[in-house]
Fold each of these.
Amino acid sequence: MTYVIHQNRVSLRSLKTADFASQETLCFSATVLRDGHPIAEARNDGHGGCTVLRPLKRNHAQLAEAEAFARTLPPVIVEHDEDPSGNLTIDVTLEFLVDHLASQMHADRKIRAAFKRQFANEVLYVRDDQLLYLKGVPLKTVTDRSALFAWLRANHKSDITILAELPLEEAFLLWKRYMLEDGRS
């Protein structure tokens, strides 16, 4: 079930998750922000129940405005796995939006952690539209990276992109593109 809700008024900060306690839903707690201002605390115990939204410091009016905003968002349409002819339409509520944001943030953290582990432990490069790595050469132990990268280029005699030479965010986006494309996530 992959979908994106396009909006920039409601966000989360201080997301804490507990994978070990997540059974039917993500077990989490977070602060809900509306236009960058904290308005509520969100909690889900991970057992399939509702996410509880509790206003902060008498922010009942701001929480009600955030709920009203969420209801103005277009419904989410999800293809039903068992019945391809029938789609599931879900009206967006603040609770649904908060759950969605928490899941997105959690997934992003996991994929960034996987990238950081692989980036530190392998010399990653792209050649012929494939993400490859040097076996047995952990990047963090290489003292003369420029010599290694020059050797790598000379050995392949083709255009290659070495991720360690890119800015970190650019390397992450390139890595993510190939990892998600290959279905390895």
Amino acid sequence: MARILAMDFGTKRTGIAVTDELQIIASGLTTVNTKELLQFLKDYTKNESVELLLVGEPKQMDNTASESEVHIKPFIAKLEKQFPNIPILRVDERFTSKMAFQTMIDSGLKKNQRKNKALIDEISATLILQSYLYSK
């Protein structure tokens, strides 16, 4: 089997998480500067087999699209061009940032460490991936 890769897309940084090859465990991989994201994905898919890309879908409480969707749609168009053989799915990402922050508190990270926005993005991507795996 191949891995599933999930992204918590942001205009500055994008958190990335992947499954193991059996698609059982979701793990945070890294946070990448969004300007370097496509190149990172090209390099990653050269070394690892990826069968599915998940992109977080930010929604408002009334289920309408978030303002950040304006930035995500063009990115997805580039993804589709760059990786025509890998399907792309959207996963509702409501509350993942709050859940990521709470995870940091629960795991005992000090206040100073919890200010690390890159870590929050990576944990958010992991939560997006886990929610997809649970729904499968």
